[in-house]
Design a protein that fits this description.
By secondary structure, the chain is α+β, with helices and mostly antiparallel strands. The protein has one domain. Helices cover 42% and strands 24% of the residues.
Length: 89
């Protein structure tokens, strides 16, 4: 994730994905849970990071501060694996 990451950045998924019941396979040996799968589903190249955080927070009734940290770490891992890239809004 860029050091100057703002919530106006838009994550774009670079790899195809397959849904397998409650988990999603996006890279060999990389499975995500339901919340991770929803993050990836929302990572369509049109939504900002803030919009994704807001959607997850609302859908799963979770505290935004916790969600922000968790999603930032999740997207950092996806970026390190070469699965997403960042673009400006």
């Amino acid at each position: 994730m860029p050091d100057d990451m703002g919530q106006d950045l838009i994550p774009q998924l670079l790899r195809p994905r397959k849904r397998l019941r409650t988990v999603m396979l996006i890279f060999p040996n990389f499975l995500v849970n339901e919340v991770g799968a929803k993050c990836i589903e929302l990572c369509d190249g049109t939504r900002t990071l803030k919009q994704i955080i807001d959607a997850i927070s609302t859908e799963y009734e979770m505290d935004k501060e916790i969600i922000e940290k968790d999603i930032a770490l999740f997207f950092k891992e996806l970026e390190e694996l070469g699965l997403i890239r960042w673009k400006k809004d």
